[in-house]
Specification:
The protein is mainly alpha-helical. It has 13 helices and two strands; from the N terminus they run H-H-H-H-E-E-H-H-H-H-H-H-H-H-H. It has one domain. Helix content is 72%, strand content 2%. A two-stranded antiparallel sheet has the order 1-2. Helix 2 packs antiparallel against helix 7. The N and C termini lie far apart (66 Å).
Amino acid sequence: MTEIIIATIISFFVCFLMLPVIIRIASSKKLFVPRQYRMVHPEKVSSLGGIAIFTGVLFVTLFFSDFEDFKEIKYFLAAGSFIFLVGLRDDLKKVRPFDKLIGQIAAASIIIFLGGLRIEYIESYNEIFHIPHSISYLISIAVFIWFINAYNFFDGIDLQASLNAVVILIPLGFWFYLTSQYNFSLLLMATAGSLFAFIFFNYSPSKIFMGDTGTITIGFILAFAFIKFINLNTENLAGDFNIQKPIVYGILAFILPLSDSLRVVFTRIFRGSSPFLADKNHLHHLLIHLKWKQNNIAFFTTSYTTLSIIINFFLVKHLESPFIVLILNIIPLIILYTVIYSKLKSLRALKINDNQ
């Protein structure tokens, strides 16, 4: 554990020391996000913070990982570097959404087809079912795409994406340590270390954004860890720390960004728009319309994520049906959005009356 703590601290300082340099370079080269990109943030800000985050993670992974024991490492480094470059290219000069999607599929394919990391089994009612290879590949690619884009969508305001990722990465990293998956633990803790450093510069008003360079890379790491988490539990390799219904629990631990991404995409499709066309219909945008401050929204969503991790740990342990667990999570979300839309409707009605 000492080595993992040291690695996490190093990752923190690598990122912390790089960020001021990146901010100065971005300022001198005028590498700022377009004003319409982040309408909730009027100041000129760079979106290259992901460079420092990724560098901290990469540095620690290269120097502290056991390459012999971590068989997926070379494929992770290849895929992670590839998707990092896709994000960097988008931050420097916008990439078409379809081209980014192709890049995400390519990165996921490196891990799935070459690294052999994919969802092979599904647990239901204490029974484990093997998934045919062709379906397994499709499901695994879909998971990567979902996690990457859900996390990318969630980075719409200061602090939110970084805080929510940290409260996922730390307990999951600790769980990997308890199950003797030290390399995976190190990877997640190092990512959390970099994000802790980034938080100092991302607290509203933000000095820098993580951009696609950060969001799609971290989303990729989360999907990578999610699939490994599923496999260890369904194959009963976690010993005393085996968690029931790992797919359900893994999804519910990150329920807000995952569910909000689905809601936004389906809303766009229902309205006849492209699912890739950006809008201001995300949860954080709705709360901003209700005059919430960015930091308050970030702390609210992070608290929701933290409670979801804790509560669902007991739900999946004591409730046999995964559908009941899902319903118990969907109900609070329905209530949340109902209250938000109701308040927005009242606010619009008030504005109309004031204008008459």
